[in-house]
Amino acid sequence: MTKYHDIQEIAFKDNKMHLKVDGTECVFHLEKISNKLANASKLEQERFEISPSGYGIHWPLIDEDLSIDGLLGIKHTPSRKKEMAIA
User: Fold this and answer.
1) Which residue from 41, 66, 64, 47 is spatially nearest to 56, judged by alpha carbons?
2) Which of 14, 15, 21, 36 is a Cys-bridge partner for 64, taking CB atoms 3.0 to 4.6 Å apart?
3) pLDDT at residue 35 tops 70
């Protein structure tokens, strides 16, 4: 399995999400990234699951998903293109 990101920490404080990913600390204002997270209770915010590949975060109590690439404003692309065989 491809490991996209290494998510070391997620914390919520003062209506912000503090994320440590790939050794870099980032802070996001909740209202800018997710209305569901901005309006969620502390318990709902703190109940999350990180995908095994590190691609995203899921909050099951509020049914919210965020991709790390989307938060960081980057895009992963395949390292090689698949070519179709023409018969």
Assistant:
1) 66
2) 36
3) yes
